[in-house]
Amino acid sequence: MRQVYLAATGQNRGKTTTSLGLFDLFLGRGLEAGFMKPVGQRTIIEDGVPADEDAVLMREVFGLTDPMPVMSPIHIPRGFTKAYINGEVVEDLGARVRSAHRALAERHEIALIEGTGHAGVGAVIGLSNAVVAAMLGAPAVIVSEGGVGRPIDEIVLNASLFAAHGVEVAGAIVNKVDLDAQPGLVRILERGLGLHGIPLLGVLPYRPILSNPTLGMVLEGVHGETLHPGPDLDRVIDGVAIGAMEPVHMLERIGAGTLVIVPGDRDDAILRLTAAHSAVGGGAALGLVLTGGYRPSQTVIDEIRWADLFATLVAEDTYEVASEIHDLLVKTHEADIEKIELIKALVAEHLDLDRILAVAR
After folding, report:
1. Which of 63, 70, 86, 297 is the most buried (most CB within 10 A)?
2. How far is 93 from 101, CA to CA, in rounded Å?
């Protein structure tokens, strides 16, 4: 069985995005492909058994039939690492991974193996990405995100750990690159990585729908009280603004896709936003996160609802809420049909499948 170990330089770099698109390319080429996430950190219960959510996503999107213990053999729930360090976990975890890998090999001609986080994640239980890739004999492809110095530095750092475990680093993919603003960046990245003997296998362009949360995700992430859901919780936000200045100046800095974080007692700012939103037909701000636990008067709430503007009330202060939204991990779900189709199209256009198949071992 040929295989590729898809790693990353950290969390939220686009590894799941790449997995979805690359696996679709495997199937489109007529390959009997299987998927495996040896070690998972985000566990859900699927069909009565624990499984990593990315393995569940791949099974749902592509209709895969391998048992969940094969696709997702190891999960790290809360408290597991402490139990492992204290010697309370006596099972041979590596043996479970190898057993699942053998079962996958019996059914498929090529496997996409997705790692977890950077090369060292999992070391605490003896199963870092570098160790697992070496154990399975799989070459690594490392995914990083846009920029120049940062992705090259991160890729080289992660490649060194893989190399220390005897894992071939077959290449790198750089995600979230603004190709329109920096059309020459691909050549620079290719040359920069080439100085370290790492081939650039593709560059994926930045698209807001793949990187920014929807209003519904924000609502779930901040655990707020819904004052008004607005017309569409599936709308993707374009950016975030803090409503801490005079309303007239605030309006100069927001657009139709902006989520505005503002203290709930700033009636002046809230009413100026609702009035502007109504005046331009929904073109001023996408929604409001009202902070501090300050509940606006009923008159202000009525104005929010009349303007049909998304609004949620949270107890935390503005800084804390802004940090939560900034750190919000945007995951792809099987119901995100539009997003998944865009992912498939972007990967098909910007990754060289023949080069990736050539490095699969």
Report:
1. 70
2. 13
